[in-house]
Write a structure and sequence with these properties.
The protein is an alpha+beta fold. Helices cover about 55% and strands about 15% of the residues. It contains 3 helices and 3 strands, in the order H-E-E-E-H-H. The protein has a 3-stranded antiparallel β-sheet. A hairpin with a 6-residue loop joins strand 2 and strand 3. Keywords: Coiled coil.
C-alpha cells in the first residue's frame, strides 16, 4: 500500500471509530411498557421502567444528581 492509501485507510478507521463511540450513546431507546410505564433500554442488561411521574421527578433532580456525582466522584465507580 502506498503512503496515501495508508493515510486514507487510517482516516476511514478513525471515522468508523468515532461513529461506533457515538453509537454507544445513541444505543439508548425508549418504549411504552405493557402497563403504561416508560422503559429506557440500553443502560444495562434490563430496561429501567418507571411511570411518567417518576421520570419527571428524576429529571427535575438532574442538577442535584450531577452535583452529587461531581462531589462524590472519588467514591463512585465507572462501568464501561
Amino acid at each position: 500500500m502506498s503512503e496515501e492509501d495508508l493515510r486514507a485507510e487510517l482516516e476511514r478507521l478513525r471515522a468508523e471509530n468515532d461513529q461506533l463511540k457515538n453509537k454507544a450513546v445513541r444505543g439508548l431507546s425508549l418504549k411504552v411498557s405493557e402497563k403504561g410505564g416508560l422503559s429506557l433500554y440500553g443502560v444495562g442488561r434490563f430496561p429501567v421502567t418507571l411511570y411518567k411521574e417518576q421520570w419527571r421527578k428524576i429529571l427535575a433532580m438532574a442538577p442535584e444528581i450531577e452535583d452529587f456525582i461531581v462531589k462524590n466522584d472519588s467514591l463512585l465507580k465507572t462501568k464501561e
